[in-house]
Amino acid sequence: MIPLVAVVSLNKENSRTFRLWVPIALIWLLLVPLVVLFSPLILIACLLCQVNPFRMFSVGWQILSALKDTKVELGRRTAAVSVCIL
Amino acid sequence: MSEYRRQILQMLSEKKITADEAERLIAAAEGTTVASAVNGSSSDAKLKPKYLRVQVDSEGNYGGEGPTKVNVRVPMQLLRAGVRLAGLIPAPALQRANDAMHEQGIPIDLTQIKPENLEELIEQLHDLSVDVDQNAYAAKVRVKVFCE
What is the pTM of this model? Predict the structure, then answer.
């Protein structure tokens, strides 16, 4: 299952934590028509590079699925940012 | 209610132990039970780490904002998918990448990294821990890479 939500947290000194829930599912939905639109170009590129297009889509899907539970935190004394893909 | 919990509560009611002690005893007993219940699967979990963690602690005062901490957690699944992606790279491109790495003194043959070999590699990663301490620009930087 590909990740559907990302949580971006911003924490500044002496202020409340700002937490933003980003619905990545909407981004995937927006990307679908683009992928369909550009699929002939992608197919030609795959053939030119001698790459199996089905395998490429399969690996792309696996990479998207594997992004789940990825977490990146960056903190300094005055502020901290964290991105968590759920 | 389990026997150990009943005994602990009995001791509590008889005021042989305090509420705090009872709580600790129950927690300890439950921990032992859970550990023994999952004992069979724990060895598998030990063998297969789920995440690659990279932690960077810098005590430098860049821009006057104090020390910097970076904490990255990457799922092992992403590593697996990455290797599968590398499997899509055409052989001539891999060869060129190998040549470029050899020129830089990195003796890694990318053609030998295959998804079939990856599981073995990931199993070995469980014991991996890389600690780098460096004093750069008068600031102590510590990088820690490990699997969990």
Answer: 0.66
Beta bridge partners of B68: B58
ipTM topping 0.85: no
With CB atoms and an 8 Å threshold, state whether A66 touches B81.
Answer: yes
CB within 8 Å of chain A, chain B residues 108-127: none
Residue by residue, pLDDT tens for chain A (86 residues) are: 889 999 999 988 878 889 999 999 899 899 999 999 999 999 998 888 888 888 888 988 999 999 998 999 998 888 899 999 98
pLDDT, tens digit, for every residue of B83-137? 888 878 888 888 888 899 889 888 888 777 777 777 777 777 777 788 888 776 6
Angle in degrees, CA A52, A28, A82, rounded to 5: 110
Report d(CA A21, CA A2) in Å as an integer.
Answer: 16
Whether the CB of B31 is below 8 Å from some CB of chain A: the reply is no
Residues 40-59 of A with CB under 8 A from B: 49-52, 55-56, 59
Q: What are phi and psi of B20, to 5 degrees?
A: -65, -45
Closest by Cβ to B71, choosing from A51, A52, A73 = A73
